[in-house]
Specification:
- By secondary structure, this protein is an alpha/beta fold.
- The protein folds into 2 domains: 118 residues, Rossmann fold (3-Layer(aba) Sandwich), CATH 3.40.50; 171 residues, Dihydrodipicolinate Reductase, domain 2 (2-Layer Sandwich).
- It has 11 helices and 14 strands.
- The protein has an 8-stranded mixed β-sheet, covered by helices on one side. Strands 3-2-1-4-5-6 form a 6-stranded parallel β-sheet, with helices on both faces.
- Helix 4 runs parallel beside helix 5, helix 5 runs antiparallel to helix 10 and helix 8 crosses helix 10.
- It is globular.
- The termini are far apart.
Length: 329
């Protein structure tokens, strides 16, 4: 960000993730939280006090507060649409936590508004703002792996206790939107939009506890993205094995290092910033440069991954309570 002044954020949401993000990005000295809003006003006031921000009684007041350069939406999944739409209609650039919305139709509408108004909108898909995932794609595109013989894409984390929203169907909780989006997006970015999707999941009390999403890709290859919020089976791992080389990345959504292990014995190590601050730095740079869409997470990527997850939900018959009310199901 060079000699640019500190980038100033409005946080919509003051929960667990909001606190983690605010702590990291403000410590860099390149970002400040200047405004905050949460439906839980006391929690919002505590959050604002901790990070030197102003707490507001309404989202509109927070978004339009003086000095706000952009809005970061970090609320439960079911309210992303509402707050992103409000921020765009108020003319503010937006970085919204993944997934952008709970379904592709909502995502299409928000992207349409952003394009019509010429306002920056990006989904905070941490992984693809980071250099490591993009380096893996460059290696793949360059043929470094040779013919692919095996791919593992897992995100299994017993995260039921991470935050109340994770197990709350009224807030679009469950594995798919929270953690399944990571391996699905990874496979999509590497191999393209699948020609066939088969999803098998475990549903309990209105949420998906786990699923295996098997995707067939245009070249005929078939790989499975596996996710869970109730076990550690397979942990969080991306593994690609080819006839020429292989990689294994633990905690791939935030990786800072990857080693390409060639069969010739000539390994290549790549290191890159995988922190949340990296994501916010890049978004700030894009907004300042006048971009309306991120080069790291383009709108098409957000929409395509959302469509894959819509199909998974259709196959699992996973409908959230607020959707049933809306459609009078």
């Amino acid at each position: 960000m060079g000699t640019e002044k500190v980038f100033r954020w409005c946080f919509i949401g003051a929960g667990t993730l909001a606190g983690k993000v605010a702590k990291e990005i403000t410590a860099s000295g390149r970002h400040r939280v200047v405004a905050a809003y949460s439906r839980h006003i006391e929690k919002c006031r505590e959050f604002a006090k901790q990070y030197g921000a102003e707490a507001y009684a309404s989202a509109k007041e927070a978004i339009t507060a003086p000095e706000v350069d952009a809005v970061y939406v970090v609320t439960p999944h079911n309210s992303h649409y509402e707050y992103v739409k409000l921020a765009l209609e108020l003319g503010k650039p937006v970085l919204c936590e993944k997934p952008l919305t709970t379904d592709a139709m909502q995502a299409e509408e928000l992207i349409g508004i952003a394009q019509e108004k010429g306002i920056y909108l990006a989904e905070a898909m941490w992984t693809w703002f980071s250099p490591v995932a993009n380096q893996v794609k460059r290696w793949l595109d360059a043929g470094e792996f040779g013919d692919i013989t095996n791919v593992v894409a897992n995100y299994h984390m017993n995260s039921k206790g991470y935050a109340p929203r994770v197990t709350d169907p009224n807030r679009a909780g469950g594995a798919l939107l929270d953690v399944g989006v990571y391996p699905i997006a990874y496979l999509y970015r590497l191999f393209g939009y699948p020609t066939d999707i088969k999803c098998v999941g475990v549903i309990d009390k209105g949420i998906d506890l786990s699923e295996d999403v098997t995707m067939t890709f245009p070249d005929g290859s078939c790989y499975t993205a596996s996710a869970s919020i109730v076990d550690y089976k397979g942990l969080e791992k991306i593994k690609i094995v080819g006839t020429k080389a292989c990689i294994t990345i633990r905690f791939f959504h935030m990786a800072k290092k990857v080693t390409l292990r060639r069969k010739t014995g000539k390994n290549e190590v790549f290191r890159g910033n995988g922190s949340m601050t990296n994501e916010f730095d890049r978004v700030a740079e894009e907004i300042r440069s006048g971009r309306k869409e991120s080069v790291f997470v383009p709108h098409k990527v957000t929409l395509d991954v959302m469509r894959i997850m819509d199909e998974c939900r259709r196959q699992m018959n996973l409908v959230y309570p607020f959707e049933k009310e809306k459609n009078h199901v």
